[in-house]
Amino acid sequence: MDVRPLSHDFGAEVIGISLADVADPGARGDEAYALVRAAFEEYSVLLFRNQEITDELQIAYSRRFGPLEVAKVASLGEGTPFSILTNVDRATGKLVAPDHKESLRAKANQLWHTDSSFKQHPALASVLSARIIPPAGGETQFASQRAAWDRLSETTRTKLFDACVWHDYAHSRGQIAPHLASERERAAMPPACWRIRWRNPVNGRDSFYLASHAYAIEGQPEPESKALLAELMEHITDPAHTYTHAWQAGDVVMWDNRATMHRGRPWPAGEHARLMMRTTISASDADGVAGTRPPVEPATA
Ligand SMILES: [Fe+2]
């Protein structure tokens, strides 16, 4: 296996090992998994080119890293291991209108976020495969929350070290349209509170754990809390420190939800189809979940 860095401080293309190698249930698969897992811990975003992707292969590869999430309520793919991101209406085969729920969801995905931080159990990683790519736009952009933590001054790091943050799916959706998160979604996904910092148990490196779902810093008055969150989001997603992935047929990208943020980029959605399939791996205690829970039960949501 070889790696080719994608940017100056995070991300790498994996060369010489395929998803099928890692998915192999035998000793060869164990060896391939160990190499890819080490690269994942180090680089946070991994790109595999020219993969012959199938649903079965994506699931078998993803399962190497841990149990898979079931796609959330009221989403395309609900109840299956796949979150489906598309502007194609499956019933009619036509492109959906700009006010269609899937169009609004695509817009919400264009806010910087990390997957599943609003859930009661967070995600270790996401694996995204390109199935239909528009001829222009539709890139996925990444920012390293780990590199952003390292760029802080020692004083700010100390100040933020034990801060905890509330995340809510309805909050990020509310930035796109007031009722985009339905009653059913709100009931299934109440707010969750996490430390602002996730320590990687393998290499001991700290990372921010923030997202568009984050709406309040525990125990801080609202104006200060909102202003600080906005400032930190800007710091983390500084364009000088992002990587933009322009999708090619056969690409699969995996990212560490503990250490990165990402966002989709727009494309002419009224003219061109886009279909992306995502599997999401649940974080286990070995991935540092316990250390990310607030030290004391937070008082308010
Ligand atoms: Fe996402």
CATH architecture: 4-Layer Sandwich
- Structural class by SSE content: alpha+beta
Number of domains: 1
Low-confidence stretches: none
Provide the gyration radius in Å.
19 Å
Query: Helical content, roughly?
Result: 25-40%
- Which fold name is given in CATH as the topology? Double-stranded beta-helix
Give me the strand/helix succession. Answer: EEHHEHEHEEHHEHHEEEEHEEEEH
Bound molecules: fe (ii) ion
Shape: globular
Provide a quick synopsis of the model:
With 301 residues, the protein is of the alpha+beta class. The protein contains ten helices and 15 strands.
Task: Give a verbal description of the structure.
It is a single chain. By secondary structure, the protein is of the alpha+beta class. It has one domain (2-292): 4-Layer Sandwich (Double-stranded beta-helix), CATH 3.60.130. It has helices at residues 19-23, 27-43, 55-63, 101-108, 145-150, 154-160, 169-174, 183-188, 222-236, 289-292; strands at residues 2-5, 12-15, 45-48, 83-86, 123-132, 140-144, 164-167, 192-195, 197-199, 206-208, 214-217, 242-245, 252-256, 260-264, 275-282. The chain is globular, with a radius of gyration of 19 Å. Residues 109, 113, 115, 262 line the site of fe (ii) ion (FE2).
List the helices and strands and how they pair.
Layout: E1 2-5, E2 12-15, H1 19-23, H2 27-43, E3 45-48, H3 55-63, E4 83-86, H4 101-108, E5 123-132, E6 140-144, H5 145-150, H6 154-160, E7 164-167, H7 169-174, H8 183-188, E8 192-195, E9 197-199, E10 206-208, E11 214-217, H9 222-236, E12 242-245, E13 252-256, E14 260-264, E15 275-282, H10 289-292
Parallel strand pairs: 2-3
Antiparallel strand pairs: 1-2, 3-13, 4-15, 5-13, 5-15, 6-12, 6-14, 7-8, 7-11, 9-10
The structure holds fe (ii) ion.
